[in-house]
Write a structure and sequence with these properties.
162 residues, alpha+beta, 6-stranded antiparallel sheet, 4 helices, globular
């Protein structure tokens, strides 16, 4: 059994409902049908085009799936919740599920990079990840506590606790 950490984000189609539905869907694919999840944060959207703020969280789950199988399951959840993939990189979306970490593995595959390439730079990932795994050490030896201390507090606020 492996432990996976997943970032959740939504800024369309009732984002709070999208995040809650995603928590439920993640429980269904977890090996033991349960997840841990962070509080929900509101954060400023990335990119140059104006768009609504995001709601973000991080969940962890145990899985018997291989990393690409888990990625397929995450993308199926996104699709079921109305995710439309466009050409623009940072666009509004009903749901975004990113596989951040898979055990202590480093994965470099055309479809999947783990740890997620933006994990160390995005406060909307660092804050909720530190909430649910304060003692986590990334595959490169970086402690999440170090990233948390260095993360900007600009453009992010916790809006709902667990």
């Amino acid at each position: 059994m492996s432990k996976a950490y997943i970032a959740l984000g939504s800024n369309l189609n009732h984002p709070m409902k999208q995040i809650q539905a995603a928590f439920n869907a993640l429980e269904e694919i977890a090996a033991d049908n349960k997840i841990d999840h962070s509080p929900i944060y509101q954060s400023t959207a990335m990119g140059d085009s104006p768009q609504p703020d995001y709601l973000n969280a991080v969940a962890s789950l145990n899985t018997n799936k291989e990393p690409l199988q888990l990625l397929d399951s995450l993308q199926a959840i996104e699709n079921k919740q109305g995710r439309v993939r466009g050409a623009e990189r940072w666009q509004s979306r009903s749901l975004d599920l990113d596989l951040l970490l898979f055990d202590n593995e480093i994965i470099d595959h055309p479809r999947l990079t783990v740890p997620h390439y933006g994990l160390g730079q995005r406060n909307f990932v660092i804050y909720p990840l530190a909430d649910i795994a304060p003692d986590l050490i990334l595959p490169d030896g970086t402690h999440i506590k170090e990233l948390y201390k260095a993360a900007s507090k600009t453009g992010i606020q916790q809006i709902e606790s667990t």
